[in-house]
């Protein structure tokens, strides 16, 4: 009997404040959409780090004919210089740091360039004789790039030592900033949602002050009187959270997996399974947000 009465009161409250409830649903939807996006973006960043850091290489670019680098004063890297560099990479000094080495000549560099930019305006723009030869080094520990850099920075025949790890760090730093911005917007929207839920509950309690006064007179407890109002906020917030999860699922399924995965087929992007992991988190955040704001509001304004 008590449960049926509580749910009937919840329905009455939802019907009386349809516009306010819709406002709570929408602001919760938007705020949790940003929260979910930030979580999924961070999951993608972590997945990309695991993928790329396992494949990161250090490149020793050899001197081309017209280089102005001090180590290229004698002109293009000679066969003797290449042999000396190869011997150093295969030597005992660097053995603990170097896992694998392969030489990339102009023909191979040109082929990889054409494959990478196939179908773009860059394809066919650089002839093979202008490509730069290099040694590609896979390290046992990608963070020990400085050892290779110091070892070959003054070696004749080596124009430049490039660590792909540094380029990746810059990319991931930008993506982390994007995650932080999304979280900041989400926090602002969550605050707006909390304030709107508090206002909605307060108006609902005010419109039913006679009923709550009668319930208090007949001995109803505070928890029993407040429960319908709390459930109103929780229901609206849960609907918003579910809509946010649904929107994220549609974007991931048809945007990320449907289109973006074809453009980045070399590594795995976030999937619908990741959204299913995030969805309960959004629902819990919505419930806590609505529940806490409702309880605090009722404690202050609902004194019969």
From TrEMBL:
Annotated ranges, domain FtsX extracellular: 56-161
Alphabetical list of InterPro entries matching this protein: ABC3_permease_C, FtsX, FtsX_actino, FtsX_ECD
Domain of life: Bacteria
Keyword Cell membrane: yes
Transmembrane segments: 21-45, 177-201, 234-256, 276-298
Gene3D superfamilies: 3.30.70.3040
Domain ABC3 transporter permease C-terminal: 184-302
Pfam family, any one: FtsX
Predominant location: membrane
Keywords: Cell cycle, Cell division, Cell membrane, Membrane, Transmembrane, Transmembrane helix
Protein localization: Cell membrane
Keyword Membrane included in the entry's annotation: yes
PANTHER family attached to this UniProt entry: CELL DIVISION PROTEIN FTSX (PTHR47755)
Summary of the function given for this chain in its UniProt record: Part of the ABC transporter FtsEX involved in cellular division.
Family: Belongs to the ABC-4 integral membrane protein family. FtsX subfamily.
Record note on quaternary structure: Forms a membrane-associated complex with FtsE.
Descriptive protein name: Cell division protein FtsX
